[in-house]
Design a protein that fits this description.
Largest sheet: 8 strands, mixed
Low-confidence stretches: none
Helix content: 25-40%
Distance between the termini: 47 Å
Number of strands: 26
Mean pLDDT: 90
Radius of gyration: 24 Å
Length: 536
């Protein structure tokens, strides 16, 4: 069996990569050892960046319909007195920033989405047991549930097979970091009658605990276990019910228990995200405590970053060196989120009553100062990815290059109003703000962008000039009906032309007069076979 990309692990990360590769036209096999989606809630939080990736898969609105949108995160002390709230209202990337979901529903829709693509196969009850890199690919040894053995030959292999990743072990990569000493009991119930329409984190030196409102009547509870409480004791239904009734003053009938399980929290990042023709993504590459809800979301960022680079090499003739930038761009940000989640875990679980009071005082004080209240409320403390190296041209910490670009609404020539990505297409976009980017490119530069498959767009900051394109132009004209481009460009007068990558990160900017120079420099960052341009 032959394919271009083999993905091991059909969880959210692996299924997202497969959907993106399906959109990009890459022949893909996705395999998983389980016979079906695990039918109980696991991950519970999705952010706006991930929803934008699902949008790129063609599934954004479909998966978002199953979520509780704009869910607030509220911090309480051990007396259940409110200390602070995170409830971001902005949608810079076109989607709400905090959403709760049921992982089985998401995984089911991602797998169903694969049925759109004849060039993508989902193989269940197959386990990877070995692989060998050849000169131009990888031979993967796979065993089915019935003992049947088969070899799958692929150009590249992606290990999205979780914290115990087989791919990671086979390539010799190592998770670096630590496992935290505390154990947590995670409880999911269905048909909940407990009314608390938010995620609640309860700071306590005795037993910190969590309550999360989930869609379709589900609710998540989490409790830190004491040293003298064994896993076997605390997962029993009577012990679970006692914890819930004690901490939430629950007096009515207890609804159905979906599952209870004890977890240890890991703070680990793989020493390498790529070895030869094999890559690691999601939990196979990094593990973090759940306190910021970014574990799965970090994996979805991996998927978006890796998928387009694989497609660039396999489908668009990009030099394979671009694949080295995957680890360059993703590993640092993954580590930053692991560190933030670990720090938040310490905030939620102070060791002494004095520590609890200090944290409570600090959070209350932050709410009294408008700047710090906004810092919390709008989630400005969340580390946003910034790619200081990789497929970016002249990034700097204070520059928009290397960061995710905004997604305002725009209007098509037909008058239809859509999110920007829907107009930009699923690949590279060369965007002129109040100008046609093609008008400023010589023939050699035009051929580079065409060979890469880029779409040319003109975004008008007003409706004036909507039809000012030369006859036969390949450029699509959009109107900035929401003012997003106007506001973005207000302090960036020298950014007439911008390059947006398939994962919606800003790759380069320039004035109209620098368009050819920028193209030649960018072609050195992302060489396309026989299409790297010479400096003039």
């Amino acid at each position: 069996m032959n394919t271009e990309v083999l993905i091991v692990g059909a969880g959210p990360c692996g299924a997202t990569i497969a959907n993106l590769l399906g959109v990009y036209g890459v022949r893909t096999i996705l395999l998983d050892r389980a016979p079906a989606v695990i039918d109980y809630p696991r991950g519970v939080g999705v952010d706006d960046e991930s929803l934008r990736v699902f949008q790129a898969c063609g599934l954004g609105r479909e998966v978002h319909a199953d979520m509780i949108q704009n869910q607030a995160l509220v911090w309480f002390d051990s007396n259940q007195t409110k200390l602070a709230e995170i409830a971001p209202s902005g949608q810079p990337f076109g989607w709400p920033r905090r959403n709760s979901f049921l992982q089985p529903m998401l995984e089911t829709k991602l797998r169903t989405g694969l049925e759109r693509f004849e060039h993508v196969q989902l193989l269940l009850e197959r386990e990877l047991v070995g692989m060998r890199e050849t000169g131009d690919g990888v031979e993967a040894h796979v065993v089915g549930a019935d003992g049947t053995e088969e070899t799958i030959t692929a150009q590249y292999v992606v290990g999205a097979d979780g914290g115990r990743s087989t791919v990671r072990k086979l390539i010799g990569a190592v998770l670096e970091g630590s496992t935290l000493g505390a154990r947590w009991l995670v409880v999911d119930i269905k048909d909940s009658t407990y009314h608390a329409p938010f995620s609640g984190n309860y700071i306590s030196s005795k037993r910190p605990f969590v309550s999360i409102d989930l869609p379709f009547g589900y609710r998540r509870f989490e409790f830190r276990l004491n040293d003298d409480e064994t896993d076997e004791q605390m997962v029993r239904p009577e012990a679970v019910e006692k914890l819930i009734r004690t901490h939430f003053n629950w007096t009515g009938p207890m609804p159905g228990l979906e599952r209870s399980r004890v977890y240890s929290h890991h703070s680990r990042v793989a020493d390498r995200f790529k070895v030869g023709r094999a890559f690691l993504a999601g939990d196979a590459a990094h593990l973090q405590p759940p306190w910021f809800g970014q574990g799965m979301n970090s994996g979805i960022r991996d998927a978006a970053n890796l998928a387009w680079k694989l497609a660039a090499v396999v489908r668009h003739g990009a030099e394979p060196g671009v694949l080295e930038t995957y680890g360059q761009e993703r590993r640092g940000h993954a580590r930053a989120l692991v560190e933030l989640a670990t720090t938040l875990g310490r905030v939620y679980g102070p060791k002494t009553m004095a520590g609890e009071k200090l944290r409570s005082y600090g959070l209350r004080a932050m709410q009294r100062i408008p700047a710090t209240r906004d810092y919390l409320l709008q989630m400005k403390f969340k580390p946003m990815p910034f790619y200081a190296e990789g497929v970016v041209l002249d990034p700097s910490p204070k520059d928009p290059v290397g960061r995710m670009f905004i997604q305002p609404d725009v209007e098509l020539p037909s008058g239809e109003r859509v999110k920007f990505d829907e107009a930009a297409g699923d690949w590279f976009a060369l965007v002129g703000i109040n100008t046609d980017p093609a008008d400023h490119l010589d023939e050699e530069s035009l051929q580079y962008w065409r060979s890469l498959g880029a779409r040319f767009l003109r975004v008008n900051r007003s409706r004036a000039g909507s039809h000012m394109l030369s006859a036969g132009s390949e450029t699509v004209v959009l109107d900035d009906v929401q003012g997003g481009f106007r506001d973005w460009a207000r302090t960036r007068a020298d950014r007439d032309i911008i390059v947006i990558r398939p994962d919606r990160y800003l790759a380069a900017t320039c004035t109209a007069g620098q368009a050819n120079t920028m193209t030649r420099r960018f072609s050195a960052v992302l060489p396309v076979k026989t299409k790297t341009l010479t400096s003039k």
